[in-house]
Amino acid sequence: MQKRADLPKVDHSAIRVGQGSIVLTLLIAFILDLWPLVAAVAVINLLGAFVPSLSLWRLLYQQVLKPSGLIKPHVIPDHPEPHRFAQGFGGVLLVLGALLLALGFAVGGWIPVWIVILLATLNLVVGFCLGCFTYYQLNRLGVPGFDRSPVERGR
After folding, report:
1. CA 14, 31, 99 angle in degrees (round to 5)?
2. Distances in whole angstroms, Cα of residue 25 to Cα of each of 22, 50, 116, 143
3. What is the pLDDT of residue 151?
4. Considering the domain boundaries, does residue 147 fall inside one?
5. Residue 133 domain-assigned?
6. Residue 148 lies in a domain
7. Cβ neighbours of residue 14 under 8 Å, at least 6 residues apart?
8. Which of 12, 17, 88, 109 has a CA-to-CA distance to 69 between 20 and 30 Å?
9. What residues make up the domain containing 36?
10. Which residues of the chain are under the pLDDT cut of 70?
11. Which of 64, 63, 44, 66 is nearest to 54 (CA)?
């Protein structure tokens, strides 16, 4: 485990805004049966995972919600890579869902979308990120590219 003092800082409020935005947008997509909206969230997630400075969710937080005082920063020592991995994996699931929905496979398409909704909700409500957990397990197994180890939590 890496000591907290050695870590970069991550604003978990920005992460929570992203999770809430994903859940809300995907629920709207489901209710209105709009696969293009699922595709849009997939693109937003993938862009945010690979080019974090262009993340629409982060920009919403930094440019609107944080300056207005609606949401306060919660910056803590943490690795950003596991969070980006989780966001990217969610994006891949949403690409799959959007493709299946576009091809007319409603049940098969909504399943990966609902997986993302449930996992984002789990992280938003309970604070458990399955994508981050997976990233750290891959790190423990020595998989190349997963070079960040879990953060030592204060006692």
Report:
1. 80
2. 5, 21, 11, 33
3. 80
4. no
5. yes
6. no
7. 57, 58, 61, 62
8. 88
9. 4-140
10. 1-5, 153-155
11. 44
Buried b (16+ CB within 10 A) or exposed e, 55-90: bbbbebbbeeebeeeebeeeeebbbebbbbbbbbbb
Contact 111, 97 (CB under 8 A): yes
In a domain, 66, yes or no: yes
Nearest to 149 by CA among 89, 87, 78: 78
> What is the total count of domains within the chain?
1
Specify the pLDDT at position 150.
87
What's the predicted TM-score (pTM) here? 0.91
